[in-house]
């Protein structure tokens, strides 16, 4: 397979169109057989459900080249299951989970020339999504949909190593009382844009959202779950039904327990407790783990600095990161079914 002539080691986390995308149309109550197409643009009616009532959900996963030259992706069955949950919540017809996995394989194979080579630090980011396409003006679900997958090569999330970030406690309730935080949908991200811009203006990298009912418990950031390491080496991660169930976080829970022998606690985490933790990280597909150096509550001036420091990942966070990326890149044998070989 002749690779595209890109400067693989200098890619950013941005979009560039590749040769193929996948599309399946839903009409008269069923999904058609689906196909690979070449046109990156979509033409829709001005009144399409996606434009008027934001009826759209998405997923995100990556394809990697392993050391021995295979193209693989990581636990795509979990993305299929989560897209199903998101779709149900927005009254979008479910795209069958087995077909989702096959479509990912098909579109990655067709774009094999765009999968960054091993060692470049880059990966092929895969973005499946579904949207309501027919005109709707009364508030109701659309009757026609498109399931699509686009792919784009992306650079490593951290250039020159993972430097810990600073987070502020947000006044905004991201996980609204009507409970949409646990689905992966554009509407959650649209609601997070103002807090993100504000945080950046104030010199912070991200927002920590508290539970909206009591504002005492840690939920997540705009696009990543939290993980903490206690001073006695336990792995702690918040439990809440308004947190998006991160596949990276769920995988790290297994890595922590089964590979590193840590005790894992998946439970409510009070903001009060943060000062007692030794390490803090954010987990998600894009960065795997971003270390957090400091959390600030601008309202009362609270500042929590994690002892692992502002310079690098804490030692246990680093072991978790290396083990999980080792499994993804094929140096370490993963649990059954985690790594799906595409080619
Ligand atoms: C995608 C996402 C995450 C991370 O999930 P992964 O499956 O690990 O990529 C966390 N929080 C939110 C809100 C997300 O949308």
Largest sheet: 9 strands, antiparallel
The SSE order reads EEEHEEEHHEEEHEEEHEEEEHE
Radius of gyration: 20 Å
Number of helical stretches of at least 4 residues: 6
* β-strand number: 17
The rounded distance between the terminal residues' Cα atoms is: 11 Å
Spans of at least 5 consecutive residues whose pLDDT stays below 50 are none
Fraction of residues in helix: 10-25%
Query: What structural category characterises the helix and strand content?
Result: alpha+beta
Beta-strand level of the residues, as a percent range? 25-35%
Overall mean confidence score, pLDDT: 94
**Ligand roster:** pyridoxal-5'-phosphate
Q: Identify the overall geometry.
A: globular
How would you explain this protein's 3D organization?
With 343 residues, the protein is an alpha+beta fold. 22% of the residues lie in helices and 27% in strands. The protein is built from 6 helices and 17 strands. The protein has helices at residues 49-53, 76-89, 97-110, 186-201, 247-259, 315-329; strands at residues 21-27, 30-31, 35-37, 56-58, 61-65, 71-74, 123-132, 145-154, 165-169, 206-208, 225-230, 235-238, 264-267, 277-284, 288-297, 302-305, 339-341. Strands 1, 2, 3, 4, 5, 6, 7, 8 and 17 form a 9-stranded antiparallel β-sheet that branches. Strands 9, 10, 11, 12, 13, 14, 15 and 16 form an 8-stranded mixed β-sheet that branches. Strand 11 (225-230) and strand 12 form a beta hairpin. Helix 2 crosses helix 3 (97-110). It is globular and about 55 Å long.
